[in-house]
Amino acid sequence: MPTRVREVTTDEGWDEAVPIIRQLWSDADEEFVRGWRDEEDYRLFGLYERDGDATDAPEPGTLVAVAGVSIQRVLHHERHLWVHDFVVDDPRRGEGFGRELLEWLGEWARDRDCENLALACRDGNDAGRAFYEAEGLEAWGQVMERGL
C-alpha cells in the first residue's frame, strides 16, 4: 500500500502517536511524552499507510511508525539529525516501514544540510541494533549519562 510521511502537529495526531511512542518508552507516562511537543527543536514525523490505492487521498491513513527528531550541532558531528525516538507499531514490524521512514529521514536531513543521522539504541535492544546496522548505521562510541 502507498505510504506518506507527514509531521505530527495536531492534538489528534499526537493522540495516535503517543501509544506508539510508549512502545519504546513504556516507563514514561503519557503527560511526559506529550510534553515533548513543547520542546522548541523537537519534531515528530509519522509514516502513514494510506487506505486503498489512492496516493492523492486527503486523509493520511493509518499511522504505522513515528520518529521524533531534532537538528543539532556538536563538535564531533557538526550539523546532524538526532533521532530521539524511532518506533514502528509493534504489530507492523518487519513490513519495511522502519526502512522507509529511516530513508525518508535521511533525505529530509540532507535537504537541511545535515552531514549525519545519529541515534542512541538502548542496551539489550538487539533487534533494534541489528536493524540499524542492516540500514548502514555504525556504532560510534557510547552514550554515558547520570541522573541529576
Automatic annotation (TrEMBL):
Q: Which Pfam families match?
A: Acetyltransf_1
Q: What is its EC number?
A: 2.3.1.-
Question: Where does the record place the N-acetyltransferase domain?
Answer: 3-148
Stored Gene3D superfamilies:
3.40.630.30
Q: What class of enzyme is it?
A: transferase
Q: Which UniProt keywords apply?
A: Acyltransferase, Transferase
SUPFAM superfamilies, A to Z: Acyl-CoA N-acyltransferases (Nat)
* Alphabetical list of InterPro entries matching this protein: Acyl_CoA_acyltransferase (IPR016181), Bact_Acetyltransf (IPR050832), GNAT_dom (IPR000182)
The answer, when asked if Glycosyltransferase is one of the entry's keywords, is no
GO terms, molecular function: acyltransferase activity
The identity of this protein, by name, is GNAT family N-acetyltransferase
- Please report the organism this UniProt entry assigns to the protein: Halosimplex aquaticum
